[in-house]
Amino acid sequence: MPLTLPETAAPATAQPLDTTAFELLSVPVAWCDAQGRWLGCNRAFITFTGCTAAADGATALPGEVAAEGGAALSLPALLQAGADLDALAWRASDAQGQLLTGRLSLRCLAGWRVLTLLPVAAAPPLPPAAAALPASPDHRGLMEDMDSDAQLAHFGIWTHDLRTGERNWDDQVWRFWGRTPQPGALDLDTALTALHPDDRAETVALHRLSMTVPGRYAHRCRVLDPAGVERRIRTLWQVVADADGQPVHANGIVFDDTETFRLAQSASDAQSQLNLVLALADIAIWEHEAATGLLRTSTLGWALLGLPPQPQGLALARVMERLDAGSRQTLQAQLGTIALRSQDVDLDTGGDGPSDLELRCRRPDGQWRALLVRGVRRRDAEGGTLGHVGVMLDLSDRFDAQQQALALAQRLEMATAAAGVGVWSAALDDPTRVHWDTQMRRLHGLAPDAPAPTLCDYLANHVHADDRSAVQRSLDVLVQRSEGLLDLDLRIVQPDGQVRRLASRTSVRGGPGQRLLNGVLLDVTDRHATEDRLRQAHERAALAARGAGIGTWEAERGAMDAWWDAQMFRLRGLDRPPGLVTTDEMLGWLHPADRDSRLRQMRVALQEDSPSDAEFRVVWPDGTVRWLASRSSPVRDEAGRTVRRIGINWDITDARNAESARQERLLAQRESQAKARFLARISHELRTPLNAVLGFSQLLLADTVDGHPPDPATWRSRVTQVQASGEHLLALIDDVLELSSLESGELPLSLQPVALAPLAQTSLPLVELLAQQHQVTLTLAPMDGWVLADPVRLRQVLLNLLSNGIKYNRPGGTVTVSAEASAGWWLLRVTDTGRGIAPAQLQHLFEPFNRLGAERDGIAGTGIGLAIVQASVQHMGGTVQVRSTPGEGSVFELALQETAPQAPAPAVFAPGAPLPPAPLAADGRRPLLLYIEDNEVNMLIVRELVRQRPDLDFEGAVDGASGLAAARQLQPALILLDMQLPDTDGHAVLRQLRADPATAGIRCIALSANAMPEDIRNARAEGFDDYWTKPLDLTAFLRALEKLFGKAPTAR
């Protein structure tokens, strides 16, 4: 491959180059400046090349330089590029014409260029182009003559006539390919197939190229013989051209480099292993040259010295400047004399054996490192000193560990003295070797200079008599084990007779003949006294807790698993001793409905590290449910850190039951009071129209003062008042029923997407007349939202709010309908400029029949409308909010869920569509209407109404049985059926009518005072053709008959 040279300029000026060391090298070396002017060479260079031109200042080095692929390179260009190069092919002829070959390397040092030549075995010269001959018997004979020489030199020869295609290999080439020698050459494709797969493509391409371009070529590749043995070969060949420049012949030499490569690889592996060992052991290598006084070291060595790598080396004196005073004195003692001057310093230890130095070196960052330096002298063949080589280790960690151990020992001594801990040791093989520190003597009441007693004397004279035998047995066991620790709690007797309690820890160490007992003693007399008092207090508290039925527990900091006493288990109906309880066990004893909340409470208490109170239920093994209360608090140390959590449980079942009973009584009282208020209000509301009905009824029956009946106008006025009062009473009852259905959830809703704009636009005209009567202006703001609601109920809600806004407004006031989107909701607002509502009245605004004093102002209403509004909106999943300012007005805001718009639905038949006309009797008789009703008044009203239709006949039945019989006999065109009869109900009568073929086709309409939506829905589902409610609207009743039987005939 062509060699690309880096475009790096050499320094303009070069530092002086010390070439003395080059003379000591056996490798040929020459040097020049950055411009490529040769300035000198060493003796080895002259010996190898036989050329003194460089030494005489010539400007060119003899020979040729080539890249790996054989392409010639410009040596001046290489020199001026200023790049380091390795192992370029070099060849030249000496003064006698002998071919010289080698590998040239280039190093750029401080503006200088230094070249080294590594000689290689001279290869036999290729035949010159003029001598290239086609293959012939004589030529083959020449090859045979050279074969013996080729075998000795491990090279083979091949030829290729490009004009005839004839190819010849000598025996050695055949052997390289693992084949038996024979005339000619191996087929070219077979020969190329034998190449290593990784080398094949490149080799084939180069071979084919060379056969078309005359010139010299070189290539390395791997060959696999038929047995799979790999050889590494190097081929040099020349392609010769004729007079026209066309390639005609190729001659080549093949070298077997397998063994050379193996040796090089082995050496490289050994070097790699050495480098690996040095790297793993953190060992640096250094070298000092006596001639130059320079110190060179590996990358790790420069790092240990805290210096950047110095490829040219560094003067030893410069290195010594980094040593501390003690290290310099040590080095001076080893060297004998050192002058810290610019002249070279010889590292001479006075002998050839290894010498060790421990030095402390200060790095540029101010850090001190402890280094171990080991070196040996290096001599030349005549015994002269060439310098020193050696290794360097960083012992800083070991040095620091020693310093830390010393500091630790000092701190330990201070700590034991401060903590009152006595330290002692005794040799088992020499009873007189006993050591006590000052604290040991203080613990035993001895003078500071008192001799330490032997182990036997200590047991006899210091240990309490009651503890002596136990201490002796324990020590004997420890000595027999020869390992482990012995912890004891013993009493000693001081010389003044005072008894003290000590805690002891003892260990045994060492081998046979060197065993040693080491121990520490601590005075725990006060601690034991405190523990005794605490234990007594704990026993008293435990006794009180057991008497009160209180269970106690405690847990480690941050843990939910806890240690329980026996009472904690008894509170759960369990007979277990104190012990650790896991979270899963605790949750398993809780009532299932309380587990999640209790677990959350425990986690919050741990996260917030705060006191906690809770009440929960537990289930006993027999199924009994009990209420427990829990209270816990963190326990903190002197620094305020939580160390554990403690808590208690107690049974509150009786208290909870009593509280529940009390709450039930209060609830019952509140419900009773609410019912009483409701009954009082509804009684008032019902009595008002009833009073009008009864009063005017009595007036209708009474005569005037002169004893004559009232005139027709007075009669009509009184009847009108009776009718109005009845209609008011009916509306009141309907509102009460509707509110009851909403609150009980029995009123079905059809939730669907509803567009707010059309709903509001079609609602305003319905209250336009009322607004005109009160001189109030209606305003509709732009809106485009869709909500999830029942369109009928939502319109009723909006009409109710609009009518209230009008009735409670002032002349010239306004009522505005607007809407606003808000995070998944639509806020529908009705804003008025009326009288407003006082804050004290807002909390009673939605109470049924509570008109907040408006009844005194003569404003019409029942006081139940807003209660229906609130119940309807809540039933649709929304809320109602009110903001009001007395004297300024009110804002009623409905929050309804936002939904996606709905495409227009196809037209459908409206519910309650007119029924088809009833068929006439087949025999021409007038149609018969049968009314099954047990109430005489209701029967009379319907009879009188039917009489207004001369084309209809009427028949009545007072119970279900007579009604069924009349239906079978009379075959009426229509049956009106009451739903509550003395002997049965309307559903049963209908089922019997439908089951009898004679009456199955008769039209049946329910006529009942049961006006609940569920009653109407069930009746229609049962099979009734329609459902009419009482009290009857006479006009609507006659209109319905007209739809069924046509218009009544005109009287003649």
TrEMBL record:
Q: Which Pfam families does the record cross-reference, listed alphabetically?
A: HATPase_c (PF02518), HisKA (PF00512), PAS_3 (PF08447), Response_reg (PF00072)
Q: Which GO terms describe its molecular function?
A: histidine phosphotransfer kinase activity; phosphorelay sensor kinase activity
Q: What are the Histidine kinase domain coordinates in residue numbering?
A: 681-900
Give start-end of the signal peptide.
Answer: none
Any one of the GO CC terms: plasma membrane
Membrane disposition: Multi-pass membrane protein
- For whether the record's keyword set contains DNA-binding, the answer is no
Record-given protein name: histidine kinase
